[in-house]
Amino acid sequence: MIFLTVPHATCPQSNLYNTEFIHPCDKLALKSAKILKKIGGDDVQIFEGDIPRTTQDLNRERSRTTSYRKNLTESMKEQMPSYVLDIHSYPDSKTISFPKGSEIILLDNNAFEAEYYSMKLLNSLEADGIIAKLRKGAKTNDIQKEARNLKLRSILIEFNESLSEERLKYIARSIVDWSSKQ
Ligand SMILES: [Zn+2]
After folding, report:
1. Cα Rg, the chain, nearest whole Å
2. CATH of residue 17
3. How many domains does the chain have?
4. Which residues sit with Cβ closer than 5 angstroms to ligand 1, an ion?
């Protein structure tokens, strides 16, 4: 079983947040998760965030009391998935601190320490001709943190929002192929 968490799936209603300077929701994350599920089938389960991050960020520790996080915690304990992939997306613009031109960015708190499966995924993506980067993630990325505390393997994946549908499908296939082999 592979879990796909999408904590920033829901956009706020207000246009107040529609500026290029803030990133109120992940516009390509849910679509990416659905494509991953379409490829992975019954082995893949999506957890779609239901609160905009401008109201409450579901990827923070203080959100563990929300129904979204409580359901996720219970499901992780019961099903012990082989991977918890935390799915996000980012605009390919200079206002965001990610390197421009990458198709996908992996964030991992422990990327350069013991948790080297992120590095393995990176190598596999690169072997498939995908422009990928691995970066140290924020310690506050709480879904990854909680999964790790439960001894589950977790990778945070950021998709570039300017990816074409065709490219997105190609990358999703590469991720599913890799994770089902592990
Ligand atoms: Zn996000």
Report:
1. 15
2. 3.40.630.40
3. 1
4. 8, 26, 88
